[in-house]
């Protein structure tokens, strides 16, 4: 896999020509930027900026996004900055305007067919597809247990997606013998791009290192490959990146979420 070619393909199909990531949201071109726009419970942010963006254009674009956030009354707005985006000091300019950087993530990609081996699970653990609101509630609980964060926003997005646009989406969780969720993950399928995105993979502390996370990756890889998707893509945390690298994922670079919250 030639990383420069795959990164260029990713930039073109997944960022510049981005598609909405769920119902009720839209993708807009705003001058040198592409952004997603939705309601307060949706993800709102910049996904692509022109390679020709210079210092003057960057300051103007940043100011425009702050105004956009204020006009819609959004609680937060994210600028997803990739390491190869320009200008070179764009991160500094975002910070100066009030955006706060969150921990960087590694953009990882792997051929889907490479990961379609057998699913191996610890004794007593089973995989369960998430197909309804009850499953979404369990998945949100798994998210809270794994990451220690509020899962209400995820629950809202999951229920809406399952009700209104389930065809290009898959979610799965692992449950123990008592039916308690111990790991969960979802997958976005992006028709016409060749990419499927893996999101939200997280395992509760006492089940880490037992192959549960890997099993969820394999489960989703099978679905992607069966539907004709060539690549799996992950924005990986420092915890999951080494696991995914061992599975065969290749790093294309890093991405840092810069978040703007009005009044802070």
UniProtKB/TrEMBL annotation:
<dbReference type="Pfam" id="PF00583">
    <property type="entry name" value="Acetyltransf_1"/>
</dbReference>
<dbReference type="GO" id="GO:0016747">
    <property type="term" value="F:acyltransferase activity, transferring groups other than amino-acyl groups"/>
</dbReference>
<keyword id="KW-0808">Transferase</keyword>
<feature type="domain" description="N-acetyltransferase">
    <location>
        <begin position="125"/>
        <end position="264"/>
    </location>
</feature>
<dbReference type="InterPro" id="IPR000182">
    <property type="entry name" value="GNAT_dom"/>
</dbReference>
<protein>
    <submittedName>
        <fullName>GNAT family N-acetyltransferase</fullName>
    </submittedName>
</protein>
<dbReference type="InterPro" id="IPR016181">
    <property type="entry name" value="Acyl_CoA_acyltransferase"/>
</dbReference>
């Amino acid at each position: 896999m030639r990383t420069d070619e795959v990164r260029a393909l990713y930039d073109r199909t997944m960022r510049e020509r981005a598609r909405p990531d769920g119902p009720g949201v839209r993708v807009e071109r705003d001058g040198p930027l592409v952004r997603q726009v939705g309601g307060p419970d949706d993800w709102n942010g910049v996904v692509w900026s022109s390679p020709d963006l210079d210092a003057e254009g960057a300051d103007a674009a940043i100011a425009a996004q702050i105004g956009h956030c204020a006009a819609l009354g959004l609680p937060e707005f994210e600028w997803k900055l990739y390491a190869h985006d320009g200008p070179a000091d764009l991160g500094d300019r975002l910070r100066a305007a009030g955006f706060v950087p969150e921990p960087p993530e590694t953009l990882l990609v792997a051929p889907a067919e490479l990961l379609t081996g057998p699913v191996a699970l610890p004794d007593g653990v089973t995989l369960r597809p998430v197909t309804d609101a009850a499953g979404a509630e369990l998945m949100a609980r798994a998210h809270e247990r794994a990451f220690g964060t509020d899962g209400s926003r995820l629950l809202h997005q999951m229920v809406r997606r399952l009700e209104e646009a389930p065809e290009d989406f898959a979610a799965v969780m692992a449950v123990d013998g008592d039916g308690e969720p111990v790991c969960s993950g979802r997958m976005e399928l992006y028709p016409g791009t060749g990419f499927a995105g893996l999101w939200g993979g997280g395992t509760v502390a006492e089940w880490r290192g037992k192959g549960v996370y890997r099993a969820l990756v394999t489960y989703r890889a099978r679905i992607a490959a069966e539907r004709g998707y060539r690549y799996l893509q992950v924005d990986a945390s420092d915890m999951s990146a080494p696991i995914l690298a061992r599975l065969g994922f290749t790093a294309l670079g890093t991405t840092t979420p810069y978040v703007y919250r009005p009044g802070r």
